[in-house]
Structures are given as structure tokens and as C-alpha cells.
Amino acid sequence: MLKRLYHWILSWADSRWGATxxxxxxxxxxxxxxxxxxVLLIALCLGCTTKAFRYALICTAGSVxxxxxxxxxxxxxxxxxxxxxxxxxxFFFRIIPGFTHTEYDKISxxxxxxxxxxxxxxxxxxxxxxxxxxxxxxxxxxxxxxVLASVVSRGLRFFLFAWLIWxxxxxxxxxxDKYFNILAIAFTVLLIGSFVAVKYLIQ
Length: 203
Description:
globular, VTT domain-containing protein, membrane, transmembrane helix
């Protein structure tokens, strides 16, 4: 089913509604949809490299707005006044791959310590972003900080895709498909590590 969904998404790259579909996909993926918008973004950029950065901007805007929707779901619809999971929460546990009660508890444990970096890491790396946007709302993460982390991480990710395709064209797609997730994780680890190192050096 996911494979059919993947190819259906790619088919929008040949449509005049491709940019609109990209925005909707980016919005939905930040709160519930399983397929990341990168696949359509790459296809659209390959189809018209001169519009690559425009597509990246559309993708970033849709993703950040979707992140706010995910935040709202978590903040307003996730728990009852008594602290029990609502029917909405149970629904999302069923439809989001890998989102279990165990994962929810793990995420809750790291928010107080890492805040910005939790959102940034999920936004830039292959970690499902929707898991973070919803739980950020549940735990009432500082909203301006949440938006900033979303804009920075999603913008870096999508504009990097756009720049690579604008600069190198179709051949870079093989590289992106094969190595981007590994490089994204490595970049994030190094970035966070550098800030941790600075923190300890100035103490």
C-alpha cells in the first residue's frame, strides 16, 4: 500500500497542480501522513531546476504550518482533563507507523532536557517529524522556540535538496537516495555535539 501511495505522490510531479500538491503533502506529513514530502520535492526540482528554490520554500511553508497543526492536535486534543488519552490520541497511535505508547513515553522524557534540539533533530533527520510536533503540543513546548526550530530544520533540509539538484542535476538524485539519511544524522550529531562542547568549555 505504501508503495502505491509513493508512486501516486510522484505522479503529481507531472501535473500543473504539482506545487499545490507539494504544499498539501508537506503540511500533512508534519502531523499524520506517512510519506515525506522530499520525494515530490525532488521530482519537481528535477523537472524544473530553475524553480528548485521556489519549491523548497513552498515545502518549508507547508511543513511548518503542518507542524503547528500537529502541535495543536497534541495541545488541545490529546489528553482528557483527567490525563487519559482521548479517542483522537488512540486514532493517531493506530495510523502513524512506529508511534506507540512506548515511543510517546520516551519522547516525553527528553523534552525537558533538550527542547529545541529535539524538534531540530526530527525536522532535519529521518526521524518521523509528526511524532515530535504532536508531543511538543502535548507537553506545551515553548511555541516560538518550536516554530524557530521547525523553520530552521525544515528549511535546511528542503533547501539543501533544492540546492543539490539545482547545482548537480539528475545525477545527484542517486546520491540523495543512497546517502542523505546517513549524512543528515551525522550532520545533526556534529552540530549538537559542537554546541555541547562550547557549553562545557565556557563553564
